[in-house]
Specification:
The protein is an alpha/beta fold and about 200 residues long. About 40% of the residues lie in helices and about 20% in strands. It has a six-stranded mixed beta sheet, sandwiched between helices. A two-stranded antiparallel sheet has the order 1-2. Helix 2 crosses helix 5 and helix 3 runs parallel beside helix 4. The N terminus is likely disordered.
Protein backbone atom coordinates (compact mmCIF):
# COMPACT_ATOMS: atom_id res chain seq x y z
CA UNK A 1 0.00 0.00 0.00
CA UNK A 2 2.13 2.81 -1.26
CA UNK A 3 0.56 6.22 -1.51
CA UNK A 4 1.77 9.03 -3.70
CA UNK A 5 1.60 12.65 -2.66
CA UNK A 6 1.64 15.41 -5.23
CA UNK A 7 3.12 18.84 -4.71
CA UNK A 8 2.62 21.62 -7.23
CA UNK A 9 5.50 24.07 -7.28
CA UNK A 10 4.86 27.32 -9.14
CA UNK A 11 7.80 28.72 -11.07
CA UNK A 12 8.92 32.31 -10.61
CA UNK A 13 8.52 33.28 -14.25
CA UNK A 14 5.39 33.01 -16.37
CA UNK A 15 7.12 31.27 -19.32
CA UNK A 16 7.99 28.10 -17.39
CA UNK A 17 5.22 25.63 -16.60
CA UNK A 18 4.70 24.58 -12.97
CA UNK A 19 6.63 21.56 -11.76
CA UNK A 20 4.98 18.55 -10.20
CA UNK A 21 7.04 16.64 -7.65
CA UNK A 22 6.13 13.12 -6.62
CA UNK A 23 6.77 11.90 -3.10
CA UNK A 24 6.37 8.23 -2.34
CA UNK A 25 5.51 7.27 1.17
CA UNK A 26 7.10 3.96 1.98
CA UNK A 27 4.92 1.12 3.11
CA UNK A 28 6.00 -0.70 6.23
CA UNK A 29 7.21 -4.25 5.77
CA UNK A 30 6.78 -6.04 9.08
CA UNK A 31 9.22 -8.98 9.35
CA UNK A 32 8.67 -11.25 12.35
CA UNK A 33 10.91 -13.85 13.97
CA UNK A 34 8.08 -16.38 14.29
CA UNK A 35 9.12 -18.70 17.10
CA UNK A 36 10.55 -15.76 19.05
CA UNK A 37 7.14 -14.06 19.06
CA UNK A 38 5.20 -17.28 19.78
CA UNK A 39 7.40 -17.81 22.84
CA UNK A 40 6.31 -14.43 24.18
CA UNK A 41 2.65 -15.02 23.32
CA UNK A 42 2.46 -18.36 25.12
CA UNK A 43 0.20 -18.43 28.13
CA UNK A 44 1.67 -19.54 31.50
CA UNK A 45 -0.18 -22.90 31.54
CA UNK A 46 0.34 -23.57 27.81
CA UNK A 47 3.19 -25.76 26.56
CA UNK A 48 5.20 -24.91 23.47
CA UNK A 49 5.29 -28.53 22.26
CA UNK A 50 2.40 -28.01 19.83
CA UNK A 51 4.37 -25.98 17.29
CA UNK A 52 1.76 -26.18 14.56
CA UNK A 53 -0.99 -24.96 16.88
CA UNK A 54 1.06 -22.01 18.13
CA UNK A 55 2.03 -21.11 14.53
CA UNK A 56 -1.61 -21.16 13.45
CA UNK A 57 -2.59 -19.03 16.45
CA UNK A 58 0.07 -16.47 15.53
CA UNK A 59 -1.02 -16.41 11.88
CA UNK A 60 -4.66 -15.86 12.87
CA UNK A 61 -3.73 -12.92 15.09
CA UNK A 62 -1.50 -11.45 12.39
CA UNK A 63 -4.26 -11.83 9.81
CA UNK A 64 -6.60 -9.65 11.88
CA UNK A 65 -3.72 -7.19 12.45
CA UNK A 66 -3.02 -7.05 8.70
CA UNK A 67 -6.69 -6.32 7.99
CA UNK A 68 -6.70 -3.53 10.57
CA UNK A 69 -3.39 -1.89 9.65
CA UNK A 70 -2.74 -2.93 6.04
CA UNK A 71 1.00 -3.50 6.47
CA UNK A 72 2.92 -6.12 4.50
CA UNK A 73 3.69 -8.99 6.89
CA UNK A 74 6.37 -11.69 6.60
CA UNK A 75 6.87 -14.35 9.28
CA UNK A 76 10.09 -16.40 9.35
CA UNK A 77 10.22 -19.74 11.18
CA UNK A 78 13.13 -22.08 11.89
CA UNK A 79 12.97 -25.24 9.84
CA UNK A 80 16.50 -26.44 10.52
CA UNK A 81 15.38 -29.85 11.78
CA UNK A 82 12.71 -30.30 9.11
CA UNK A 83 14.79 -32.35 6.68
CA UNK A 84 13.90 -30.03 3.79
CA UNK A 85 16.71 -29.09 1.40
CA UNK A 86 14.99 -25.89 0.27
CA UNK A 87 13.39 -22.90 1.88
CA UNK A 88 9.63 -23.10 1.91
CA UNK A 89 7.57 -19.99 1.15
CA UNK A 90 3.83 -19.99 1.72
CA UNK A 91 1.40 -17.12 1.20
CA UNK A 92 -1.46 -17.62 3.64
CA UNK A 93 -4.21 -14.98 3.33
CA UNK A 94 -1.71 -12.30 2.28
CA UNK A 95 0.84 -13.12 4.99
CA UNK A 96 4.13 -14.45 3.64
CA UNK A 97 5.45 -17.37 5.71
CA UNK A 98 9.03 -18.57 5.23
CA UNK A 99 10.50 -21.76 6.72
CA UNK A 100 14.28 -22.08 6.66
CA UNK A 101 15.87 -25.15 5.10
CA UNK A 102 17.56 -27.96 7.01
CA UNK A 103 20.69 -26.70 8.78
CA UNK A 104 19.72 -23.03 8.36
CA UNK A 105 18.44 -20.75 11.09
CA UNK A 106 15.71 -18.15 10.69
CA UNK A 107 18.26 -15.52 11.79
CA UNK A 108 20.10 -15.91 8.47
CA UNK A 109 16.91 -15.25 6.52
CA UNK A 110 16.09 -12.23 8.71
CA UNK A 111 19.54 -10.80 8.01
CA UNK A 112 19.13 -11.31 4.26
CA UNK A 113 15.78 -9.53 4.32
CA UNK A 114 17.33 -6.68 6.33
CA UNK A 115 20.01 -6.24 3.65
CA UNK A 116 17.42 -5.89 0.88
CA UNK A 117 14.59 -4.02 2.64
CA UNK A 118 16.72 -1.56 4.66
CA UNK A 119 14.61 1.41 5.86
CA UNK A 120 11.24 -0.09 4.86
CA UNK A 121 11.63 -2.99 7.27
CA UNK A 122 10.40 -3.21 10.82
CA UNK A 123 11.89 -6.29 12.49
CA UNK A 124 10.16 -7.98 15.41
CA UNK A 125 12.64 -10.05 17.41
CA UNK A 126 14.15 -10.23 20.87
CA UNK A 127 17.45 -11.54 19.48
CA UNK A 128 19.82 -8.61 20.01
CA UNK A 129 22.38 -9.81 17.46
CA UNK A 130 19.80 -9.90 14.64
CA UNK A 131 18.24 -6.61 15.79
CA UNK A 132 21.63 -4.85 15.81
CA UNK A 133 22.43 -6.24 12.35
CA UNK A 134 19.11 -4.97 10.96
CA UNK A 135 19.52 -1.56 12.61
CA UNK A 136 22.95 -1.24 10.98
CA UNK A 137 21.18 -1.46 7.60
CA UNK A 138 18.60 1.18 8.57
CA UNK A 139 15.74 -1.07 9.70
CA UNK A 140 13.80 -0.53 12.89
CA UNK A 141 13.88 -3.34 15.47
CA UNK A 142 11.13 -3.89 18.02
CA UNK A 143 11.29 -6.52 20.74
CA UNK A 144 8.75 -9.34 20.70
CA UNK A 145 7.33 -8.15 24.04
CA UNK A 146 6.68 -4.66 22.66
CA UNK A 147 5.08 -5.96 19.49
CA UNK A 148 2.92 -8.42 21.44
CA UNK A 149 1.51 -5.44 23.36
CA UNK A 150 1.01 -3.47 20.10
CA UNK A 151 -0.66 -6.52 18.54
CA UNK A 152 -3.02 -6.96 21.48
CA UNK A 153 -3.98 -3.26 21.43
CA UNK A 154 -4.52 -3.28 17.67
CA UNK A 155 -6.66 -6.42 17.85
CA UNK A 156 -8.77 -4.95 20.65
CA UNK A 157 -9.19 -1.67 18.76
CA UNK A 158 -10.13 -3.54 15.58
CA UNK A 159 -12.74 -5.61 17.40
CA UNK A 160 -14.23 -2.53 19.07
CA UNK A 161 -14.02 -0.37 15.94
CA UNK A 162 -11.84 2.27 17.62
CA UNK A 163 -9.80 4.54 15.36
CA UNK A 164 -6.20 5.22 16.41
CA UNK A 165 -5.33 8.76 17.43
CA UNK A 166 -1.83 10.16 17.61
CA UNK A 167 -0.83 10.66 21.20
CA UNK A 168 2.16 12.61 22.41
CA UNK A 169 3.97 10.83 25.19
CA UNK A 170 6.60 12.09 27.60
CA UNK A 171 9.64 9.84 27.60
CA UNK A 172 12.26 9.85 30.33
CA UNK A 173 15.85 8.96 29.46
CA UNK A 174 19.09 8.91 31.41
CA UNK A 175 21.46 10.81 29.14
CA UNK A 176 23.32 14.10 29.16
CA UNK A 177 22.36 17.03 26.95
CA UNK A 178 18.83 18.07 26.20
CA UNK A 179 16.71 15.72 28.32
CA UNK A 180 13.66 16.16 26.09
CA UNK A 181 15.32 15.21 22.82
CA UNK A 182 15.72 11.53 22.05
CA UNK A 183 18.48 10.11 19.90
CA UNK A 184 17.85 9.96 16.16
CA UNK A 185 17.41 6.18 16.24
CA UNK A 186 14.92 6.37 19.13
CA UNK A 187 12.91 9.11 17.39
CA UNK A 188 12.77 7.02 14.21
CA UNK A 189 11.81 3.92 16.22
CA UNK A 190 8.98 5.72 18.04
CA UNK A 191 7.71 7.23 14.81
CA UNK A 192 7.57 3.75 13.24
CA UNK A 193 5.88 2.27 16.31
CA UNK A 194 3.11 4.87 16.04
CA UNK A 195 2.41 3.60 12.53
CA UNK A 196 2.11 0.03 13.78
Amino acid sequence: MQAKAFLLIKSASIEKPPYICYFKTMAIHLVIDGYNLTGVMALPGQTATDLEGTREGLIKRLLVYKRAKGHRVTVVFDGKKSGSFYRTKINQYGIEIIFSKDGEEADQILKEIAKTEKQNMTLVTSDRAVASFAEAYGAIAISSDEFNAILATALYSYMKGVIDEDEDEIIVSNKSGNPRKLSKLERKRLQRMKKL
